[in-house]
Amino acid sequence: MPSGKRGRFPVGTPVLDAARSLGVYVESVCGGRATCGRCQIEVQEGNFAKHKIVSSNDHISPKGAKEERYERVRGLPEHRRLSCSAMILGDLVIDVPQDTVINAQTIRKAASDRVIERNAAVQMCYVEVDEPDMHKPLGDLDRLKAMLEKDWGWKDLLVAPHFIPEVQSILRKGNWGVTAAIHRDMDSSRPFIIGLYPGLKNEAYGIACDIGSTTIAMHLVSLLSGRVVASSGTSNPQIRFGEDLMSRVSYVMMNPDGREAMTKAVRQAVNDLIGKVCAEGGVDRHDIFDCVFVANPIMHHLFLGIDPTELGQAPFALAVSGALQFWASDIEIEVSRGARLYTLPCIAGHVGADAAGATLSEGPYRQDRMMLLVDVGTNAEIVLGNRSRVVAASSPTGPAFEGAEISSGQRAAPGAIERVRIDPQTLEPKYRIIGVDKWSDEDGFEEASRTTGVTGICGSAIIEVVAEMYLSGIISEDGVIDGALAATSPRIVENGRTFSYLLREGQAGEPRITVTQNDIRAIQLAKAALYAGVKLLMEKQGVEAVDTIRFAGAFGSFIDPKYAMVLGLIPDCDLAEVKAVGNAAGTGALMALLNRDHRREIEKEVGRIEKIETALEPNFQQLFIDAMALPNKVDPFPKLAEQVKLPARKAVTDTGGDAVPRRRSRDERAARRARS
Amino acid sequence: MPSGKRGRFPVGTPVLDAARSLGVYVESVCGGRATCGRCQIEVQEGNFAKHKIVSSNDHISPKGAKEERYERVRGLPEHRRLSCSAMILGDLVIDVPQDTVINAQTIRKAASDRVIERNAAVQMCYVEVDEPDMHKPLGDLDRLKAMLEKDWGWKDLLVAPHFIPEVQSILRKGNWGVTAAIHRDMDSSRPFIIGLYPGLKNEAYGIACDIGSTTIAMHLVSLLSGRVVASSGTSNPQIRFGEDLMSRVSYVMMNPDGREAMTKAVRQAVNDLIGKVCAEGGVDRHDIFDCVFVANPIMHHLFLGIDPTELGQAPFALAVSGALQFWASDIEIEVSRGARLYTLPCIAGHVGADAAGATLSEGPYRQDRMMLLVDVGTNAEIVLGNRSRVVAASSPTGPAFEGAEISSGQRAAPGAIERVRIDPQTLEPKYRIIGVDKWSDEDGFEEASRTTGVTGICGSAIIEVVAEMYLSGIISEDGVIDGALAATSPRIVENGRTFSYLLREGQAGEPRITVTQNDIRAIQLAKAALYAGVKLLMEKQGVEAVDTIRFAGAFGSFIDPKYAMVLGLIPDCDLAEVKAVGNAAGTGALMALLNRDHRREIEKEVGRIEKIETALEPNFQQLFIDAMALPNKVDPFPKLAEQVKLPARKAVTDTGGDAVPRRRSRDERAARRARS
Question: Is residue A51 within 8 Å of residue A131, measured between CB atoms?
Fold first, then answer.
């Protein structure tokens, strides 16, 4: 258990051997010497009617000398046995624990309950090597290889050249007992010895890293237990070369050393972050043997030292799209000298290895329902599909969702407004800020917010405030603030030729926080780009609705799905089926780190995914224009309407008149801008 | 022709395709575009009764536009055709030329007429890559790989990481036409793209190098034509750390940075030598894509950066014995950034990759006769065997054969005596020196030798002078100079308690050149060690005689087999079957460079060779003592006696007496010394 596999074995068979012959993965480093303690199992006692057997600790051999020594020296939890030493004497139900530090088969994601089955690319193998013999003058390394074949079945091992000069001293230091770190990724590739250690080396780590334009996030994981030892993040230092991706590409184009400087900066940041997670986890960075990276295409290229200029212009040609694997030292990542590095494949010029990671994590292709997966950043990456077909695209949402281009916008930080409600009767707002639990209309809010002040509106709250303005009738479905309301509400204030909504008057020294007509236009443009991209993929799939929606990325974690749908960022869907999945790209990297089968899985899937280039689709412009309206000019939102009272929709008319053509042409300009 | 393979093909089949389907190797870089000119063939015209066909140039398609363009631009020898363009129209006998620069299938060894069939690890493949397409957003590298699979059949290509950042600019510079350098060694390993060049790159080179203790020798070879472009040598700069191998091991043991200094020195010398052969051949060192090295075990270890201390003491443990393959840059060899480096396997702690190279070159295991292969240096490496069994050992001959430990000995250089004859009647010598054609008793010798003088005796002449002294009765079969002869010959001179033979009185300022009793003892010790080793292997094989003898190395090239046999360096054998084969180790390296099948061949053979450690064999001492006599105390030399009048042999007695035990015990000390 829990695999449920069963078999019959001769009395005296070690449980570990029985597990292996059933194809049940139980870790072991020492090769059955009862010294590493990785192979723990537990006997379930009782009458198992389902299996028609009685399982009892009487049916397993008592602890022998070796196992008792292990228990004495290293300690063994109650009921736990070492499966390499415990032998089958009768009927048994055996539990392979899934949750312990020493022998966890699985890791638990922060954001979900999903478990990752382990099949890491790195395995630690202890062997006792024959001493040199003049009659059989095989070299030290060659006898090591022979023993790794004999004890562990490794054939045709290749050797990382860096440690060849050290083999003889390591063998002698370990008194001929050594642990080899073996790396094998693809089954068609020959395995590599990537490290060698005197005696028993009972630990090996890996990192999974997502290089975002703004943030670099990393997990440090034990490859032997699957446990996430530390997770951390840092700012991408490339920000000093340009806030967004396109400005970084421009920097490369305009500065001869720009590419090199940015490559150096991001590799340095990754190395610093490795130092940080290692310090947090109490791990030596030289015990990291495997690294998996995901990134958007431009970060991916810069990290690998590739000029990203081609990605800044049609046809958005990737220098390399497939998965890559080489020595970490090839690109100056400072971990074990023999560590390998794997990058997930990129899906297209605008849909990177990060989207591949998120796709691996959420697995639309693993299920029958139509899943929409969106990762909103400066570009929104959109994947839509199910078991039979997956399509992907990116859409240029711009930075509005991140609070940029918004008059009172700011990044998420203490003092930023993160929640907003507007009373539809009085049009009065209430809001919450980051760092304070109380709503602004509750007693004590002003006092609690005094240290930070109320400084602006963060990305998630912009969605809410615009959606609430729409629900309360302040703005029309076309996104125009109704100036007539200025007569009845002091919250509607004139602002040149348009109107604004006053969210907060600003105390002494604090800014006055308003939502302007321009702010609403910026959000409309962004959400229209996203929705048009989604709609395009739905058309490719021939579906009118999606079954389930996954919001990846930080933005998705903070927005309320209801408001996202009211605004028409995402198509109509049962609200319970809209889920934030956090850094799904990083989770995908983690999966690829812990199980090399997931690498093959996503490599294969990326080859199958159909890539749609929105700029080349003739109806993108019309979809974009329709999506400028709230929630949409043409699409109904029946499931949303069941849960939220939406304003009555204007009849779709084509009356002409002065105002409409002017707005239309403005929308068209915006659509062109979004496509450029 | 010349393979003799034949087949039937549809009219219109290109000759290149026909050759390939028959398994006949015809080079091609451009992939049938008639631009590289590598695939030349020739039609043999006439009535071929043996094949029952009439072959005629009328049966091959006339030159098309592409082939004519190649002929116009690059030139095509008369009767030559490009097999990619020439199509079969009727019966043809096709000759694949073996000897041209542009299309040599083979290379000719300097020392023999043997040809090496080519199957290099590196292949150059021109492809035209699809331009980027937004609808199919595969990366540049990925489309390159796809085209290499489509046009050339390469599957699962790995990529040398160093050029990934350059792929996009190379493709664009070549206007999407590029040549990939592909390296595949073992069939079980995945092939690697190791370099990429815009347009057609129609050349690729390799080096084969033998790192000897004294000399480093190198061939520079075109991997596409098989032509040896340049061959050269240089002194091993490690000589400054110690003349012989053991003094270099001592240097490592006594100096903390000794190993590193010697590794650096030899790698620098190799890099300098690469510069030299490249200058000679007019080749850019960055066009070298493959390197094969052989060396004795201590040089092998030092070159790879491995501490050789273990090789200086029992059990003479090699750190690595198997063949290795990695990037040339891993050990700082300055060639193409993507070049691979292969080292042949070592046979045992004293029998290195150089002996493996010589074994590959001479191939005792490829034939039925019993072949003795000896490479004489400070250690003699000895290989004995045939198709069914091969045994190998080394024997500590010491430096006497190289002129060291000899009172008038010197290295081979102008002025050194290289040939000696002694008149058995008068005991007067005549000799020749390096740099002068005349013998010393010919008119004009003194004048001709004036510039260099006569400065000493080189290694090959020491063999001759001792053998001639024996043949002329000056020394007994025990190697003792007969003092009684001093009465009748002024050439026999007293020298303390022993006598010497005066070879040359020395003109003004020149040294007096004599052969002392000690010199003869040194030669006896060296030749006894060699012969005892050979005898031990003969005993292992259960043979009384060998069928053929190969002398590898510089020493073997200069000595006269007759004198070597008279002295009893080598066992009795038909003198016509004793051949010098020059630097057979280097030839073996060349074979492994030009044909990767030879790598598998020698890897497999080295695994089969039985290694004999002379120091562990109980009867080595007796064999050594027997071999102190000239030619041997117990072994008859019947075949030698047919061609050379040997002095009458003393009856083998065991009389005791004063002299014998004393000499015996001295010989035993010598035997112990030789084994230590």
Answer: no
